[in-house]
Sequence to fold (214 residues):
Amino acid sequence: MTSPSIGQKGLLLVVSGPSGAGKSRLVEALRARVRSLEFSVSATTRPPRPGERDGVDYFFLSEREFEDRLAREEFLEWAEVYGHRYGTLKEQVDQALRQGKDIVCDIDHKGAEQILRQRPDAVTIFILPPSPSELRRRLESRGTDSRATIEGRLAAAAREIEAAPRYQYLVLNDDFNEALDTLQAIVVAEKARCFRQQDKLRAFQEQGGFQGSR
Fold:
């Protein structure tokens, strides 16, 4: 896929889905196919883990810094998870879009709803696992969670899936390659919409050459 033209506004993708649906792996594979696609780096108040880099893995903020940015309404969305705050910074997203880059946010449905209130032109995609039994199998096959944690993730998945009808697109992640193809097709189709292609249309019209033709 070609790089975006100068001045062309980028695409904001919001991808959600329950834990175990495979959304993170799909987003990673989509970024390998779509060169203009960048991942939204979240801000967080939790301390960095070994090997994590500020501005690459997260923007690491103190509680005071996060609170100040929140008061200045600098977040597209935010939430508190296990005692730490996480959020998507407006300027980080908007700067990429102004440069004609596409940016993807991998967040839950509550975060998606917050973003849509501020950026109604965002493209929302829900990743659905093949079945409840397959979702359970995927979670159990990780071998990292207790049974209680798995049951909690399945209960959370049921709540997430209830929000799926509010998304613009639904991608069933039964066959990984087919799901990836569908994701890429969504990006291609959305970027071809007229309101995203005004620069190209204007450049064509400015060339003239229609006068005197029959």
